[in-house]
Amino acid sequence: MSTDHRIGWIVVLFVSAGLGLGAGQAPRPTGSAPLEFPELPLVSPLGARNDLPSPYRPGVSWGQLPNGRKWGSTAGIATAPDGTIWAIDRCGASGSRGTNCVDSPLDPVLQFDTSGTFLKSFGAGLFVSPHKITIDRDGFIWVADNGVTEGRGQQVIKFNADGKVLLRLGKAGVAGAGMDTFDQPTEVAVAPNGDIFVADGHGNAPTANARIVKFDKNGRFIKTWGKKGTGIGDFDCVHTLAFDSRGRLFVGDRQNNRIQIFDQEGTFIAEWKQFGRPSGIYIDRNDVLYVADSESRDGEEGYGYNPGTRRGIRIGSARDGSVTSLVPDVTPYPYTAGSTSPEGVTVDTQGNIYGAEVGPRALKKYVKQ
Fold it and tell me: Is there a contact between 238 and 199 (Cβ–Cβ < 8 Å)?
């Protein structure tokens, strides 16, 4: 069979633990019985390559919490200008939605050095279900809360590094599509001039918000664009945002299995599907693009459906869209869980990757080989 025809599914049989692994094949434990499973194609139907090399070692658990505290669920992690790493934790609770932090005395916003040593935390009592965390170029911390309960949630909150609240966007506990309301906001990106862009939102309903909302640096509404749909400029689960060096806004349009790129006025520039299903996006100062795919799955159509795509972190160029490497999810394919591998992703000054997982493994660090 030629390489060009390997898009078709085939069944492979491991007869020895010592055999080399092809693209998408997961290793089996030494001494276990041979396994049969579909092999991933070299390239998914939407153009995500599965056979790329990984320049990183397998991820290891990272981030030591104080006082015997245990990690819960997270999807947010970010690098600050001082080199420290900030992450959110849903107050030790599992799951990506609901009211994880409502009755918790725990701080959901945490700071670490690159070795994983805990430095500080804050935010107890302020959130329902924090989703992602953003650190702007001035070191201010932004957290989007996509949970909702009476008088809390549905907001974006800006902090200084000591945890002082500097700005709130949205009405606490109120869902809406107006100039001052959100419906499950997911992440913030801050432009060099201070303009604020909010990804809104995470809802599945046909009437749920699916838009970008733009504010000035003081939180005054400027404009919004996008609606629920599959066309160019439409969104379905606006999950993550990032700017490249040219000031272009990269939008993780997750349920549509694509990145959409816009200028800061909302003019469409490009659509990229070769990075997989984007749960998290990070772009460094050299326009290296890191995209975390934690949900691609085969099976029946519906939520997460992106067949023939290996989960993991794809790395490439924000300038031309080329994809050069893949840090693969260690979970065996085909995937049975809804989310494995990181949903949030960031990179330190040494090029090491940090991933935030919804599952029980929480934070992981991937060191360059």
Answer: yes
Structure token pair of residue 224: 């919004």
Torsion of CA 176, 128, 107, 131, to 10 degrees: -60
- The secondary element (H helix, E strand) that includes residue 343 is none
- DSSP, residue by residue, 83-145: S-EEEE--TT--SSSS-TTTT--S--EEEE-TT--EEEEE-TTS-SSEEEEEE-TT--EEEEE
Q: How far is CA 33 from the centre of its chain?
A: 35
Q: In whole angstroms, how far apart are CA 245 and each of 17, 272, 291, 335?
A: 45, 18, 16, 35
Instruction: Let me know how many helices (H) and strands (E) the chain has, helices first.
Output: 0, 26
Rg for the chain (alpha carbons), in Å? 20
| 3-state SS record for 253-316 | EHHHCEEEEECCCCCEEEEECCCCCCCEEEECCCCEEEEEECCCECCCCCCCECCCCCCEEEEE
Q: How far is CA 60 from the centre of its chain?
A: 18
Q: In order of start, what are the domains of the chain with their CATH numbers?
A: 1-39 (no CATH), 45-366 (2.120.10.30)
Return the bridge partners of 188, or none.
Answer: 198
Q: Name the residue type at position 236.
A: D
Confidence of residue 254 (pLDDT cuts 50, 70, 90): very high
Contact 130, 88 (CB under 8 A): yes
CB-based contact 134:114 (threshold 8 Å): no
Q: What is the pLDDT of residues 87-101, one digit of tens each?
A: 999 999 987 767 889
Which of 14-18, 222-226, 317-321 is least confident? Answer: 14-18
CA distances from 60 to 52, 57, 83, 356 (A): 21, 9, 20, 12
60 contacts 364 by C-beta, under 8 angstroms: yes
Q: Residues with Cβ < 8 Å from 300, sequence gap 6 or more? A: none
Q: Is the pTM of this model over 0.85?
A: yes
Compute the distance between CA of residue 266 and CA of residue 249 in angstroms, rounded to an integer. Answer: 9
Nearest to 262 by CA among 154, 317, 209, 189: 189
Q: Find out whether the peptide bond into 334 is cis, omega within 30 degrees of 0.
A: yes
Cα–Cα distance for residue pair 198/211, rounded to 1 Å: 8
